[in-house]
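Quick question, first post here. What does this chain look like in 3D?
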Amino acid sequence: MYSDEDLDAAVAAGALSAESVAAFRAHMERVRATPVVDEEHFRLVNSFNDIFVAIAGMLVLVAVGWIAGTIGHRLVGAAVALTAWGLAEFFTRKRRMALPSILFLLAFTGGVFATLMPRGNVFSPEFGIGMAFAAAVAAGFTWLHWQRFRVPITVAAGAAALIGVAVGLLLAVTPDLLKWMNAILFAAGIAVFVFAMYWDITDPLRQTRRADVAFWLHLLAAPLIVHPVFTLFGLLDRDVGVSGAVVVMLLYVVMAAIALVIDRRALMVSALVYVLAAISAVLEKFGAVGVNVALTALLIGSALLMLSAFWHVSRAWVVKCLPGVWQGKLPPLR
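> Answer (accepted):
Ran it through. Tokens below.
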């Protein structure tokens, strides 16, 4: 399996002509009856070897962390981070393996953060300052990782680290941070979403690594936006009535419309669990206790399959309602 970036690299190396690659892309659009941009490609597994290396790599990282923990708990994160960087030198930089690269990046960033993460009273100013410092260092090292390996998920990991910096600084200022946590997460989600749109707009045809970077940013932004909104309706406590379920469904329709406009499904996927919980709770109150989950899954699953089958038609209808200036910055319909 080869990505659009691989095809562009082949053109740059002279292995393929630009005309042949363009013809191949047009052929695949005709075969699939779907524009390439609507497929929302991203590389996760190139072959089973990716899974094999990912499993072996995780075993090595767990073993290294375990051995380092017998010496001192502070060494666990540092040992995992160093090992993950070393593994990335071959499997990411040389072999360009997708899934192992993602896992090694997450292990590296998480290891750096865990090494400096403070212990003690979570709601103390000292803990907030220590957390902000650990997240800032993790963000800096994540930037170095991006400069070296250019793994698309790295930008999202760096954004998550910066959110940790903001949360830590706010925790240092006020110990009552939990009261404002939903608002903070929502604001962070909006900021990440805007940042993701910046990457998307710079590659509307979805043919370069920038589209992959935007994908992971959208995947990070979606739960940050969705969780605070649906928490307000008591979905975590399953304390939702018919009116609350209707509001949840209307919000999900709005998110589906946004997903259609930007041609990204991350918002819908992240909100799906909340919609399932809302409808299931309502069906349970009406007496469908035994089959409420099954009926909910059947209803939502059928709707999503229909939307997937007619994604391009639905998207064309929604996008054409937007001003022409906006349409020019979005992925083309054809």
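The chain is about 75% helix and 0% strand.
The radius of gyration is 22 Å.
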